Amino acid sequence: xxxxxxxxxxxxxxxxxxxxxxxxxxxxxxxxxxxxxxxxxxxxxxxxxxxxxxxxxxxxxxxxxxxxxxxxxxxxxxxxxxxxxxxxxxxxxxxxxxxxxxxxxxxxxxxxxxxxxxxxxxxxxxxxxxxxxxxxxxxxxxxxxxxxxxxxxxxxxxxxxxxxxxxxxxxxxxxxxxxxxxxxxxxxxxxxxxxxxxxxxxxxxxxxxxxxxxxxxxxxxxxxxxxxxxxxxxxxxxxxxxxxxxxxxxxxxxxxxxxxxxxxxxxxxxxxxxxxxxxxxxxxxxx
Amino acid sequence: xxxxxxxxxxxxxxxxxxxxxxxxxxxxxxxxxxxxxxxxxxxxxxxxxxxxxxxxxxxxxxxxxxxxxxxxxxxxxxxxxxxxxxxxxxxxxxxxxxxxxxxxxxxxxxxxxxxxxxxxxxxxxxxxxxxxxxxxxxxxxxxxxxxxxxxxxxxxxxxxxxxxxxxxxxxxxxxxxxxxxxxxxxxxxxxxxxxxxxxxxxxxxxxxxxxxxxxxxxxxxxxxxxxxxxxxxxxxxxxxxxxxxxxxxxxxxxxxxxxxxxxxxxxxxxxxxxxxxxxxxxxxxxx
Amino acid sequence: xxxxxxxxxxxxxxxxxxxxxxxxxxxxxxxxxxxxxxxxxxxxxxxxxxxxxxxxxxxxxxxxxxxxxxxxxxxxxxxxxxxxxxxxxxxxxxxxxxxxxxxxxxxxxxxxxxxxxxxxxxxxxxxxxxxxxxxxxxxxxxxxxxxxxxxxxxxxxxxxxxxxxxxxxxxxxxxxxxxxxxxxxxxxxxxxxxxxxxxxxxxxxxxxxxxxxxxxxxxxxxxxxxxxxxxxxxxxxxxxxxxxxxxxxxxxxxxxxxxxxxxxxxxxxxxxxxxxxxxxxxxxxxx
Lengths: 287, 287, 287
Known about the structure:
Strand content of chain A: 15-25%
CATH superfamily of the largest domain in chain A: NAD(P)-binding Rossmann-like Domain
CATH class of the largest domain in chain A: Alpha Beta
Order of helices and strands of chain A: EHEHEHEHEHEHEHEHEEEHEH
Strand order of the largest sheet of chain A: 7-6-5-8-9-11-10
Shape of chain A: elongated
Oligomer: homotrimer
Number of domains of chain A: 2
CATH architecture of the largest domain in chain A: 3-Layer(aba) Sandwich
Distance between the termini of chain A: 31 Å
Largest sheet of chain A: 7 strands, mixed
Helix content of chain A: 25-40%
Number of helices of chain A: 10
Number of strands of chain A: 12
């Protein structure tokens, strides 16, 4: 008997993500079991249903995807899913709440195409959001010297502490960036900048960006004008501007989409995978 | 790569329509993404998920269906869907809340099989409900002289005003029908009558219907006995009774179902269609 | 035209069962229409959607499954579904809230493999839960002499009354079992015991079980240690222990799963089946 590929989608939003559903269909999932408004207490019963319906040798055909706009609750759901497993009964699971994991992985992979990351100075603007924190984590693991910039230095410090817990030898500098001047200072020695700010908020004016002499790669993840990094267009994909290799949100988005589909396909190759930011990033290196 | 046909179903009822789902499956949809309790504020995020997951050349494989018993909110959802589009990124969409569009189109198409509509006197009973209003609109576009009958003349006037906004040269007469006598008067010169009343409410007794001399076609859309037009059976499909060609709700229902499926199939032939009453009616002329 | 197999899942829990969904996929259902938080008032509209979308000759391709943890409300939903039917328009329906029907049927079928049930003394421990009550019903129909044991004798009496309404010649003895001693007494003449108690509650210690001389078959439906019947392991499937043929929850579970799938497949062979405990049990005899 051949088994249909079943993806259990646990979404923290009342209306579960249509984006994630269509991507799953296009990645070859046969049956979507979509659940909206999922709370941590719901996880056990739902995941047991995924675990105890097929034999252990066939459980690679069942997987779990965690999505929704609330990344913190998504992380709680993932912790809940892991607690359900009773070896050898388990299923593979992927976390991509708010697209944060695939976006962060795609951004860092885009930078890595152009410069080696180990020992390189990288500044992450708006580093304390769900995407920014993951970008810092991935860069720290690659051995980059990361300037962790935020309007609130306490939050930057908190991200540094968090990341050091999982990457003990991380090289991180918290930085307060509350005006154009301080953003510029955060970029004085940076070879790479990744801006993970809110939609339609300019973090660095075009003129100022052009003055950043050591800057080789500039990546902006904001799709709504004005750009986070002045002068970068959302469609930019390795476009050279003023001697800098530039990426906009849509330019990174193509890689993000490929990663998302590849990670979904990977879920069905084994029944013991946990695909969080790091695993998705590593997978991205192979495609 | 070939794309699965994905239909995003936005339903205003808490439990989304099973009727609409089964019809979609039978019309060839591969993947249903069903959402219940959808409110206007939910639309953008859901429709963006449908728009931004496939390239513009493949978006004819993704479409939106709006259903549920609340037709007014369904119309709001349709307005919301149209606002989402950013050319060339858009998907086709069909509105059929409460089956009102397909029912109205099927009723008018049934009449049109037997008499030309342009210049013909047609009386619509219970013309101010969601089906009745659409029947009036479609008849007005065909150039019929429409007697818009309702128990409350203010509501009949309101429907006339509404229809004139979209069909400026509409020939409409509002009519108050609050008893057998006034319903009879509304039919004095009618060649066609379409009764769009509530279930199990008789609008015109059998005896009175038989006295309507110029009447050639009598269509009743109420499936629950007693009939809206006395003497007509729900199963009637072009049955001659007393020199009148008669249709009951189930008789019209066969055409309605064909239209519903044809419209769903049409959705997947292009990515820029908006199928409201008029478009569904025009489609019906071709099948 | 060939029709996709559509299963309308009416679940009383807010998040509909993933277990039931995966089993349905593996039983060959093409399209699941899953509804959570279903209340008795929702049934008519949902089931009408299943009934009035395909012709009577094709309605064997549409079926209804009722699930969820609340068995009493599941029974109400089933009653509501039956009321919807208007011959020849109807669809087949299966009730398996909380897995109670398939579990009870699998337990009784397991016993029947080893001893004839007619005239045999069978003790059901924790007989007043949703599984226990069904076990009693099935045994009564087979002509067994059933000792209906419960901590509260009033509840045991109530189950006896209930079962006599549907099996008038049932041979039932209510029994109060509020300590080890009284449980032992309930087993003095039993050839078979079926324990349908709560998870992780021991009803009969190992030592005491071994002292039950006439006991030939011991079946425990509790999967969480400690076992309901001391000394039985969840994986036991016709394992001989101390001269008794023993089954644990997982041992019975294999048969339960086969029954669940067989019943789902049966649903699509006709459009007029109602699969409750008895019909599922009879189906089990043929596989």
